[in-house]
Amino acid sequence: DAGITQSPRYKITETGRQVTLMCHQTWSHSYMFWYRQDLGHGLRLIYYSAAADITDKGEVPDGYVVSRSKTENFPLTLESATRSQTSVYFCASSANDYPSWNEQFFGPGTRLTVL
Amino acid sequence: EDKVVQSPLSLVVHEGDTVTLNCSYEVTNFRSLLWYKQEKKAPTFLFMLTSSGIEKKSGRLSSILDKKELFSILNITATQTGDSAVYLCAVIRGDDKIIFGKGTRLHILP
Fold this sequence. Notes:
The structure holds 2 protein chains of 2 kinds.
Chain A lengths: L3 E4 L2 E4 L5 E7 L5 E8 L3 E10 L2 E4 L6 E3 L9 E3 L8 E8 L10 E2 L3 E5 L1
Parallel strand pairs in A: 2-11
Antiparallel strand pairs in A: 1-3, 3-8, 4-5, 4-9, 5-6, 7-8, 9-10, 9-11
Chain B lengths: L2 E5 L2 E5 L4 E8 L3 E9 L4 E7 L6 E3 L2 E6 L4 E6 L8 E9 L4 E3 L3 E6 L1
Parallel strand pairs in B: 2-11
Antiparallel strand pairs in B: 1-3, 3-8, 4-5, 4-9, 6-7, 7-8, 9-10, 9-11
């Protein structure tokens, strides 16, 4: 499918388990982002990537791991899930050429519940 | 600490009214400010602002940035029920990091 997709759309897991959220985009955008959205906090950046094999921490990176071996994929892993990681996770991408580098396109989100 | 503050947090108006949403920021190395509309799912892009005083317009929506006073406003004229959404403001720093406000929840009554 064209665009940016996330999987799974819904996930329930237990404390301590490892969970990987997938993000795939078909535009060959250089930049990709992971956000979490919680009530009262708005969107907060977890990690971002400027290109394949280049990642950097955002505002709330603790407890998360990312990788970017291919331009089109940007998986987010919770190595040992905690209840505080219950949230809606959004992946986004943007191009690397001015002026569109700031225009982010968002995936549909993954609702994660950690019991 | 960098921050983006939106006001009001929520707003209820009648269809046809004009609304103004505010976004103020304190961010080191400001690069640009973005507005998004979020309905039930993912945010969708509205505007990107990088220069002061230049109004961006799209239909009934318009936005302007004041880099001296560190704020932006989003105006919606002749509101419709379809404008009901959460409106997000975000600032991008020179190092590519993006900081979002908490959003303004707008509800349009028919």
